[in-house]
Design brief:
Strand order of the largest sheet: 6-7-5-4-8-9-11-10-12
Mean pLDDT: 96
CATH topology: Rossmann fold
Largest sheet: 9 strands, mixed
Number of helices: 8
Low-confidence stretches: none
Shape: globular
Strand content: 25-35%
Length: 247
């Protein structure tokens, strides 16, 4: 049974007894999510431009990334229409969702009230939910391997499952091939993980891969894309060597 824990910055995370890991960096759940999924990607620039955005998140977790995206949309006054598609095999309980303190870390704290109805419904089935006007949330309740993914749809991938050490099936070559196929030609993928094997699986999956500064004491994270120019600000890795090693 997942249990609530306070990070060092006061924001909540959850500890999974099943996987033996926290859902977020214990130094700060909110700060980590902002750094990895919003500051390292170009999604805030797209929001400012008011362009449509389709996001695929692998691991809904506590719903924090969805809340942050809604908060940024409101704070920027963005006219972007957003599809936020996620997947979750082990949804947290209504009781845990009710205790999460993310409202204290949002510019629009009322958004956090959506977590309870989201997780109440997610206990029983996949859901579709409107957090704010112009942003549709869809969460597939189940494992990613059972999820039907369309081709060429998503602009961003937030790859956020438990680490490769405890959840290797979501860091495989085949998973990254599926993610590549479901994305548009200029898509970007970001993840907190910097494991060489995970980066190798991304390269085998077709992605161009780069290292980026990590969050809250972590030296590195990983950013990948289908287009080279999306990675100009980061240190590219040798995909050919990774493919040779991990294919």
């Amino acid at each position: 049974m997942p249990r609530l824990e306070a990070c060092r910055d006061g924001s909540h995370t959850v500890y999974s007894e099943e996987f033996g890991q926290f859902y977020h960096n214990p130094n700060g759940a909110v700060a980590e999510s902002i750094h990895v999924f919003f500051e390292a990607s170009s999604i805030l620039k797209i929001l400012e431009a008011g362009l449509p955005i389709n996001v695929l998140e692998t691991g809904f977790g506590t719903g924090l990334n969805a809340l942050l995206l809604a908060d940024y949309k409101l704070a920027l006054g963005s006219s972007s229409t957003i599809l936020f598609q996620s997947v979750e095999a082990y949804p947290i309980s209504n009781e845990v969702a009710r205790e999460l303190n993310y409202g204290s870390f949002l510019e629009h704290p009322q958004l956090a009230a959506h977590l309870v109805p989201i997780f109440e419904r997610l206990q029983h089935d996949s859901i579709e939910y409107q957090i704010i006007p112009g942003m549709k949330l869809q969460v597939f309740m189940g494992k990613m391997e059972d999820m039907v993914l369309p081709e060429g749809v998503f602009d961003f991938v937030f790859h956020d499952p438990f680490s490769p050490d405890v959840n290797p099936e979501l860091w495989s070559n085949n998973v990254f091939k599926r993610l590549y196929a479901t994305c548009k030609s200029d898509a970007t993928m970001v993840t907190y993980c910097a494991a060489t094997k995970a980066r190798g699986a991304m390269a085998v999956g077709g992605w161009l891969v780069a290292r980026a500064p990590g969050a809250l004491g972590k030296r590195e994270m990983t950013i990948a894309s289908k287009q080279e120019d999306k990675l100009n600000a980061y240190q590219r890795l040798n995909e050919a060597r990774l493919i040779e090693r991990f294919s």
